[in-house]
Every structure is written in structure tokens, then in C-alpha cells.
Amino acid sequence: MAVVFERPRALTDQKFRYCPGCHHGIIHRLVAETIDELEIQDRTIAVASVGCSVFSYEYFDTDAIQAAHGRAPAVATGIKRAEPECVVFTYQGDGDLAAIGTAEIVHAAARGENITVIFVNNAVYGMTSGQMAPTTLIGQVTTTSPDGRIPSRAGYPIRVCELLNTLEGPAYLARVSVHDPRHVREAKKAIKEAFQVQLSGKGFSLVEVLSACPTNWHLSPLEAIGWIKEKMIPYYPLGKFRNTMEVKKHG
Q: Which fold has domain 24-250?
């Protein structure tokens, strides 16, 4: 019997230990499938820092380095410049990338560093009990915003793709979601394109993935999927914001 579906080679045989309904496992698989299809496993280096993303070291069967909180883009920059033949990607959550790591991601993008960033946006600090994150929506209740996020106190949620799209440096920026099969397929395509941009030497690429955190949203996994569709996507619209490969192809 022909095998039509199996574990990607770029994933270890460790069982995921994320919370029920968490989308990190789906995103891990899409990244691993991309690494397999591009045949780059032996020269890929993963960089993550602090948050739920730190567990990725257990699952990606590639070389990996842990960075301090928020510093993954800076570490990835050093690796890529020292070993330009390697494929370097960061795997970061919203608290890590858009809060303590804001300077690192903005300046890596501004410089057009030839790295790929997988940015998981679940609108909350996942690992540390559900505090308000830079991406927490207006009115969203968290452990540190019991009355909901109030702009006069906490400002507005940061749209990372739109922010980075004001810079000249990025070569590829996309926002996707994995809340249903169609969007999972679209997310896979974007992740693969982002890695291809790096392989082509075009520069900085980032894919933002809207992801569920049922535990800290206090929702069931099914309700969390509905929350992505009803609350997150209207504020964080899906699509490609920058694609230099496409411009060259059709220009």
C-alpha cells in the first residue's frame, strides 16, 4: 500500500505537548514539510527564544540555537552572516517578537537580512498565564486586562505586517491563518514562498500566522477557531503585503 501521509523528516518523533487546540503543531508541520520539499534539512538552523516557541527545539529535526527573549532575529542575523550557505529561520510568538523583541525584528527587517521569520500571533502571552500582549485585541480580557484592553490605558494592538511594510528592507511579508483546511493550505504556500525568498538571496521574509490559544482565551478548541474568524481576522486581515519574487516574475 502506498504511503500518502506521514511525519515529515524534518520533525522528530517526539509527541507534541502543546495545549489541546493549540495551533503550534500545525504550524510546525507546515514548516517541516517545507524543509523536506526544498531538501534543505541538512543546512537549516532554527532559532527561537522564549515563550511556547521554545518547545520547537524538541520537534524540528534540524540544528537549532536558543536566543534570549526577543533576540532571535539578532541571533539569526549573526548566524546567516557567518554561514550564508545555511537556511536560517526564527520561530517566535507575539509576546516575544512584538514586545521585548520589537527593536530586533524592526531592524532586521529594515536591513533586509536574508532570514525567514515564522511569527505566531495568538493575541496573548501563552506560556506565562495569559497576560495582555502587543497583539491583544481591543476589549479582550486577559489576566492583566480584566476589563478588556482599553486603548487609553494600553494603546492599540500592533499589526506587525503593516508596520514592517512601511520599511524598504523586507522582501516578503504575508499574514495567514490555520483555522481550517483551506487556510492551512494557503499558510503552507506562504511559508514555502518565504523560504524560497531566502534561498534566492532576496532578503528578509516573514509569515505571520494567526493561531488559537484556547487555554488562555478560556474557550474550547472549536470556539477558539470561531474567535479567530470573528475577532482576529477582521483586525488582522489575511494576505500578502510584500512579495519581491512576484514583482520580478510579473514586472
A: Rossmann fold (3.40.50)
